Amino acid sequence: MRAHNITSATTSATAATASITLPLHYGKAPFWLLDRMKKLSRIIISLIVDEFGEREFFRRISDPIFFQSFSNVLGFDWNSSGTTTVLTGVLKSVLNDNRDIGIKVAGGKGKQALGTLQQIEMLADGLGLGEDEIETLQSNSRLAAKMDNNALQDGYDIYHHAIIFSDRYWTVIQQGMNTYERMARRYHLKPEMFKPIKIEEKIHSGIVAEKRENEVCNLVSEKSKESRKVILDILKSSPSSIKRDLEFISVKKIPKGQMTIDGRIADSYSVPRRLNWDAIEKAYELQPENFEGVIMLEGMGKGTLRALALIADLVYNAEYDKQDPAKYSFALGGKDGVPFPVDRRAYDETIEFLSSVIEQTSLDRFEKEKLVEKLEGDKTKRI
Questions:
Q1: Is the previous residue joined to 30 through a cis bond, with omega within 30 degrees of 0?
Q2: CB-based contacts of 88: which residues, under 8 Å, 6+ apart?
Q3: How many CB atoms sit inside 10 A of residue 204's CB?
Q4: Which of 17, 35, 144, 369 is the most buried (most CB within 10 A)?
Q5: What torsion, rounded to 10 degrees, do the Cα atoms 198, 199, 204, 207 define?
Q6: Do residues 336 and 30 touch, judged by C-beta distance below 8 A?
Q7: Is-contact 257 266, C-beta < 8 A?
Q8: Residue 319 confidence (pLDDT)
Q9: What is the pTM of this model?
Q10: What is the rounded CA–CA span in Å between residue 40 and residue 346?
């Protein structure tokens, strides 16, 4: 199935800053397509793992362009939020039931996302992971969700969260929605070995979205390093000093014509109306050593973090990054008939062909080269 690149600005080296159109769509993939997606994805995943190894699979699936292209090859939406939810569901179904490939998927959309920690524990047991490794996966899963929902404030609320892992690697793919704009945004973390997330290490491999926002509050950016440091210092001071600083910034004049991250209020310096003072008191008691510890505190939500970022910026001159990390967009074809409808016959032929390729993996190098030459010759004849 041929992909049509409309406005793609990058395909490899700059994939970490790529974005893809993702309007918010509702509904489900038809059964006839979903069944074929599972069959074809199982073959493609097996080919990648067998030919290039497990690490390469994680590298590719965490690449937002590969993820989008994979969905398009399987025939799903050309630019829909369903790209994320359906493909993740397909991967979960295919990998969790596959005994030959030691890769599992926990989480998903809505209630499935809420059960991620329990699913990790259940699936990890089948991979022979120890308690420390399971705890690392669970901690990273929670931190990734908090990070993209609260510390990176771009107007989108996380509603889909999935962690893909083996006994050596893991990555997180999650999606947020902006119901006001009717848009979705997908977040990819770089594939990692078993170690805790460190925000200082440029953890995103890419963020895909329909459009760039005029202004965000990106506290996980490298440019926000000083802001994070100051926020830590602020929380280690007394809550009364934070209240004093809030009173100071609340009376500052607001520049005209500036928008908040949700695009509805002309007020880029607005102080959140509600702060969780229990969370601030807890931070003062615990004295967290790093920013990861801050965002993991219960009650440390978007409003409280934004207020702390504003204090760091307007009182202590430690600016946070206001630039949206999403940069590019392109669209591909799929089930909605754009740019062409799914050809069921061709789809089944593709599954049959790739199945035969799997059966040939035991051939020696010379025989494989001959097979490739034959395939290339057939392709030339068809052209």
A1: no
A2: 105, 107, 108, 109, 160, 162, 173
A3: 21
A4: 144
A5: 150
A6: no
A7: yes
A8: 94
A9: 0.75
A10: 12
Alpha-carbon distances of 374 from 75, 229, 281, rounded to whole Å:
27, 60, 70
Identify which of 105, 15, 28 has the alpha carbon closest to the alpha carbon of residue 60.
15
Axis crossing angle, helix 54-61 with helix 64-74, rounded to the nearest 10: 90
Return the closest-CA partner of residue 314 out of 264, 250, 260: 250
Per-residue tokens: 160: 């889909």
Residue among 26, 31, 36, 21 nearest 82 (CA): 26
**Pick from 258, 251, 245: which is nearest to 316 by CA?**
245
Could you write out the DSSP letters of every residue in 250-309? HTSPPPTT---TTSSSS-TTPPPS---HHHHHHHHHH--SSHHHHHTSTT--HHHHHHHH
- Rounded distance, CA 92 to CA 111, Å? 15
Helix (H, G, I), strand (E, B) or coil at 330: coil
Length of the chain counted residue by residue: 383
Q: How far apart are CA 305 and CA 320, in angstroms?
A: 11
C-alpha dihedral (59, 60, 62, 66), degrees to nearest 10: 160
Closest CA to 79 of 304, 354, 339, 362: 339
Does residue 150 register a pLDDT over 90? yes
DSSP 149: I
Q: Which of 279, 269, 266 is nearest to 307 (CA)?
A: 269
Element housing 174 (H / E):
strand 169-178
Query: For residue 319, what are the contacts with CB-CB under 8 A and spacing of at least 6?
Result: 223, 224, 226, 227, 313
Beta-carbon contacts of residue 203 (< 8 Å; ≥ 6 apart): 147, 189, 190, 197, 220
Residue 43 pLDDT exceeds 70: yes
Among residues of the chain, what percentage have pLDDT more than 90?
A: 46
Going by C-beta distance under 8 Å and a sequence separation of 6 or more, which residues neighbour residue 70? 41, 44, 61, 87
Q: How confident is the model at residue 320 (pLDDT cuts 50, 70, 90)?
A: very high
User: In the structure, what pLDDT confidence band is assigned to residue 279 with cuts at 50, 70 and 90?
Assistant: very high
Q: How far apart are CA 58 and CA 105, in angstroms?
A: 12
Whether the Cβ atoms of residue 233 and residue 125 lie closer than 8 Å to each other: no
